[in-house]
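Handout, page 2. Input:
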Amino acid sequence: MAKQLRVGMIGYGFMGRAHSNAYKRLNDFFDVEHRPVLAAACARKRSKVEAFAANWGYERVETDWRSLVEADDIDLIDICVPNRFHRDIAVAAAQAGKMVLCEKPLAMNVAEAEEMTEAVEKANVPNMVWFNYRRVPSIALAKQIVDEGRIGRPFHYRATYLQDWTIAEDVPQGGAALWRLDAKAAGSGVTGDLLAHSIDTAMWLNGAITRVTAKTETFVKERMHTESGQVEPVGIDDACMFLTEFANGSMGTFESTRYARGRKNFNTLELNGADGSVYFDLEEPEYLQFFEYTQQQSGKKTEDHLTGWRKIHTTNFEHPYMDKYWVPGTCIGYEHTFLNALADFVIGIESGKPTQPDFRNALQTQRVCDAVLDSAKASQWRETGVEL
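Output:
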């Protein structure tokens, strides 16, 4: 008989939906001992959370997250609320002995992230941060290629993450829908929201980022605030570009903006090494591009005309996660990245080998984000303080 994993979901927005779908479908695709139970959903607005709970099948609702954290029938707390609430909920949940899953970025800043990490480690509770792009099969295949030594000595890493949804000056800040534009709720703009993903993926593939120099820009300086009804200064970064040095000696460039007209969720990465390169584009998530230099140096001149990039359709059973889904040649989607992440978390619980990224790992990404923002403010290089 399956072991119940009773979930307390805090939040009902985009990520609340994505995570709820993963809990509902876990046992349909993955052979694990635990069966998630959607025990309770929590949010301040009762009407909103009741509608969310009814749609997704949660057994009850709460309007005070403290009551949920302290409930005896909850095993796992999932934090899907604005960043300013992450620390208090995570620390309280850990102290209550709950497993803690948290949306990215881990916290508003390094100080909060350190407190959260200390709390889950002191309580010895399983924990994970939802950096779901690690679970795209194509990116997981890139990790496998790197770990197999097929890239060789790394030289360059470049990442872009572009959107366009905040270009209009009449878009307000704050509130349930637009809290990401409010520095008091989000902590930062594209750096914490988008580049946190890029940084996490980069360090997973290419190792620690040690030093950064950055430039940020806020194009619209004032916006109406949804909650106050007043025009207020905008404190988040609309765009960020930074250079970086990795511990392995390679160089990196990162760019993110919400002002790239026509780009909705354009997320790319490329890693160039002495023996090969990999390239990924989230707009074609079922493909990984791979260039292998060493194979072309076999001494057979007849192969010269075949030198070039391979576009690998990552849908074979041999590719990461794909043996859990459909037949080769058929694609999975964005929602499956959360399902894969949840499966890894549960497998970690059952095997005793915790999955990554946990809070300790996500703290390293937070350190880079803070260093980027500090560098942009000071117009100087900054050490990240990432643990090597």
